[in-house]
From TrEMBL, chain A:
Protein name, per record: Branched-chain amino acid transport system substrate-binding protein
PANTHER family per the UniProt record, alphabetical: LEUCINE-SPECIFIC-BINDING PROTEIN, PERIPLASMIC BINDING PROTEIN OF ABC TRANSPORTER FOR NATURAL AMINO ACIDS
CDD domains per record: PBP1_ABC_ligand_binding-like (cd06346)
Secretion signal, residue range per the UniProt entry: 1-24
InterPro entries: BCAA_transport, Leu-bd, Peripla_BP_I
GO biological process terms held by the UniProt record: amino acid transport
Family: Belongs to the leucine-binding protein family.
Cross-referenced Gene3D superfamilies: 3.40.50.2300
Keyword field contains Transport: yes
Keywords per UniProt: Amino-acid transport, Signal, Transport
From TrEMBL, chain B:
Lineage: Bacteria, Pseudomonadati, Pseudomonadota, Alphaproteobacteria, Hyphomicrobiales
The UniProt record lists the keyword Membrane: yes
InterPro entries: ABC_transp_permease, LivM-like
UniProt xrefs under Pfam families: BPD_transp_2
One term of GO molecular function: branched-chain amino acid transmembrane transporter activity
Alphabetized UniProt keyword annotations: Cell membrane, Membrane, Transmembrane, Transmembrane helix
Subcellular location: Cell membrane
TM helices/strands, residue ranges: 6-27, 34-53, 65-86, 98-117, 146-167, 199-220, 226-242, 249-268, 280-297
Protein name in the entry: Branched-chain amino acid transport system permease protein
CDD domains assigned to the protein according to its UniProt record, in alphabetical order: TM_PBP1_LivM_like (cd06581)
Length: 422, 314
């Protein structure tokens, strides 16, 4: 019996021993990544891992970071927080990675952040976790500034809509929203922003999806005599609710969420009621820096980079490595302090790709400022580590066609957010 | 602290927390023969209970009572015990597979309540900013983790010692008697239903205790922490370690959790960089393979149940 125990013990030791030589190479900087390669997110996890690998490979081609080669260490979280946290802990303590990229699901990302990254003073950049709780934690001071993400949250949308409501002169607005993750957080961030710019939210009313009528919800929203309505809904339910709102004599001063930008919504409400309405939507990121990534991806993997998280993961890795180069050493705190230095300011613009990174290295060496424009376009982090995206404002013409009324690029969005945070 | 040591401390905190859950399951399955397939549900109640009782007050949440950590953990245990009492009264008349199916369903229901009862549990976004006990007293995370390991280790030792005493008492022998032959135990004037309920509630309370310790260490809780997979992991720990033996339960918890985590580490070291995205699949295969091999060579687990009539008779 003991023999078996000994055998399995010896097997375990053998595994460990044969693992050791890999660590003994000279001057390698580890960059850790925790993603769902198996488990419920496996379908998208592998490609996201490849996007991180692409950025690291391009850096190594450009001559590495801080004088060393970069070693990309990808660990699987199996879609479970306990496995993900453990993987992150080995990356930080044993591999000595100063940066962790990931994870995908917020429920995995958050415990890694609170129990590994922040106490270990390691920068964590997520490609894919959009939960507003991270912003909340950062506001409470729980992230120590070590948290960043390259995926826009709902918050900028709320801020932009609050600005539009203010410019339009709305004083007292009612909010009706779909009772989901998305609806709740957008309503919350809109309310906070609108109150900050001096408006009043008369009521916030959630509704459950796929009901025949929303009379009760509409009635509740009408209390307090609002002069306008912000409707956060999906097209079919949104049309039902809005028809009832209008037939009860509700104001036609309407703000609409991104999910309502659909012809079927306009048709079933009636275009004549929507001429004063304005809505928001994510604008497509475009530009030469985005093309540079798309081309590099196609050249390496033979397909277009279609899939969630690829562009944002690439940028997460690139931002981390550029900040490390700027800091000159693989140290979490130094990287944290340099991330904004390489994404804001009037420095020379750096695009994705080995040539871009080579140029960045030369400029940094010469002590000149750089500004990274990545696979998601120009990128800048606010004080809570969140990024913004470009947005468009849409309206409805007299003929019932959807039109684009206005465009908010990232700088304008960032300015609006800075104004709110002041 | 050097890297490996710091990691080892971290690893042991999690593994010993699980060992408390495994001892709870061992009381239910190993000694009393109750097939609880809803382990994660009671773990979740303890975790959420502690998080709600100790968490900071937030305007959008019902909870956030900011109680001291020990009160939170005890509160979580009481909640887990009450839940187990309700579940036990409703289901313990069921036998083996029926009990398994109903407890499995209950665990999933509990997870879904966590996901949907936003005002209490924070819904899918979970509860953040749960204070870690005495965190500010310790300067470095390494020192803090060492403290927490001592805390968890002490609690594990107390649970182990208390269970050993209880299981060697007449009550402990009664559990085994009911497991082996319920009719025979009843014919001796014992009340099997009551004793089964006691074992079920006590085991589930231990799971709740572990949930509270887990939350105190991680500082965050979300429904993703309580997927049915965790129940499977706990069962694997008990079966590999040796059901019917608390030493086996602890060895199984540490051993299986080491296998689960170190296999990923070993793979990331051994695989060439460009095959890393295949590593996850290999890891899952290795975990399964090693568990199967253990059971082939040691069908009663690493440390199985000692065969005895009574410790007084040879």
């Amino acid at each position: 019996m003991t023999k078996h125990l000994l055998l399995s013990g010896a097997f375990g030791l053998g595994l460990m021993a044969s693992a050791l030589p890999a660590a003994a190479q000279s001057c390698e900087i580890p960059v850790g990544s925790v993603l769902s390669i198996t488990g419920s997110m496996a379908a998208i996890g592998k490609a996201i891992g490849d996007a991180g690998q692409l950025a690291v490979d391009q850096f190594n081609e450009a001559g590495g970071v801080a004088g060393c080669n970069v070693k990309y260490i990808l660990r699987d979280d199996q879609g479970s927080p306990n496995v993900g946290v453990d993987a992150a802990k080995t990356l930080v303590e044993i591999e000595k990675a100063p940066v962790i990229l990931g994870a995908i699901q917020s429920g995995v990302t958050m415990p890694i952040l609170t129990s590994v990254s922040v106490p270990g003073k390691v920068v964590q950049i997520s490609c894919c976790s959009s939960a507003p709780t991270f912003t909340q934690l950062a506001r409470d001071g729980g992230t120590g500034g070590y948290w960043f993400r390259t995926l826009p949250t709902d918050r900028p949308q709320g801020v932009v809509m609050a600005n539009i409501a203010k410019t339009k002169g709305y004083k007292k607005i009612a909010v009706i929203h779909v009772n989901s993750d998305y609806g709740v957080s957008l309503a919350r961030s809109f309310k906070a922003a609108f109150e900050k710019v001096g408006g009043t939210v008369s009521s916030v009313t959630p509704y459950n999806q796929e009901q025949a009528s929303y009379r009760a919800e509409v009635n509740a929203a009408m209390q307090g005599d609002p002069d306008s309505l912000f409707l956060i809904a999906f097209p079919a339910d949104g049309a039902t609710a809005l028809r009832e709102w209008i037939s009860f004599g509700g104001s036609q001063n309407l703000l609409l969420s991104n999910s309502l930008r659909a012809d079927e919504f306009v048709k079933s409400v009636g275009a004549q009621y929507l001429t004063k309405a304005e809505g928001i939507d994510n604008a497509q990121t475009e530009g030469p820096s985005v093309d540079a990534f798309n081309k590099a991806w196609a050249a390496k993997f033979g397909s277009a980079p279609n899939g969630p998280g690829l562009h944002t993961m690439y940028d997460a890795a690139a931002v981390a490595l550029l900040a490390m180069e700027k800091a000159g050493k693989p140290d979490g705190t130094a990287i944290r302090d340099n991330i904004r230095a390489i994404t804001t300011g009037d420095g020379e613009v750096i695009f994705p790709g080995p040539d871009g990174f080579k140029k960045a290295k030369e400029l940094i060496k010469a002590g000149k400022p750089i500004r990274y424009e990545g696979a998601t376009g120009p990128i800048s982090f606010d004080q809570f580590g969140d990024v913004t995206g470009p947005y468009l404002i849409w309206g409805v013409g007299n003929d019932g066609k959807l039109t684009v009324v206005d465009k908010w690029d990232k700088t304008r969005v960032a300015d609006a957010i800075a104004e709110i945070d002041k | 602290m050097s890297g490996y040591l710091a990691y080892l401390v971290f690893f042991l905190i999690v593994a010993l927390t699980y060992s408390i859950v495994v001892m709870g399951l061992n009381l239910q399955w190993g000694y009393t023969g109750l097939f609880n397939a809803g382990v994660v549900g009671f773990f979740a109640i303890g975790a959420y209970g502690t998080a709600i009782l100790t968490g900071p007050d937030r305007p959008e949440l019902i909870g956030g009572f900011a109680l001291p950590f020990p009160a939170g953990v005890v509160g979580g245990m009481i909640l887990a015990a009450l839940a187990a009492l309700l579940v036990g009264l409703a289901t313990l008349r069921l036998r083996e597979e029926y009990l398994a199916i109903s407890t499995f369903g209950i665990a999933i229901s509990i997870q879904l309540i966590g996901l949907n009862f936003d005002a209490l549990t924070g819904g899918a976004q979970g509860l953040t900013g749960i204070p870690r006990p005495l965190f500010s007293t310790f300067g470095t995370p390494g020192a803090y983790n060492l403290f927490y390991l001592c805390l968890v280790g002490t609690i594990t030792a107390i649970v182990f010692a208390a269970l050993q005493v209880a299981l060697q008492s007449p009550w402990g022998r009664l559990l085994k008697a009911i497991r082996e032959d319920e009719t025979a135990a009843a014919s001796l004037g014992k009340n099997p239903a009551l004793v089964r309920l006691q074992a079920f509630v006590l085991g589930s309370t231990l799971m709740g205790l572990a949930g509270g310790l887990y939350v105190g260490f991680i500082g965050y809780v979300s429904p993703l922490d309580f997927l049915p997979l965790l129940t499977f992991q706990i069962w694997a720990m008990l079966i590999v370690g040796g059901s019917g033996n608390n030493r086996g339960a602890i060895v199984g918890a540490v051993g299986v959790w080491a296998l689960w985590t170190m296999s990923g580490f070993a793979i990331s070291r051994l695989l060439p960089v460009h095959y890393q995205s295949q590593g996850g699949a290999i890891q899952v295969i290795i975990i399964g393979l090693l568990i199967v091999l253990t059971l082939l060579f040691r069908p009663r687990g690493l440390i199985g149940e000692a065969q005895s009539v009574s410790r007084h008779a040879r």
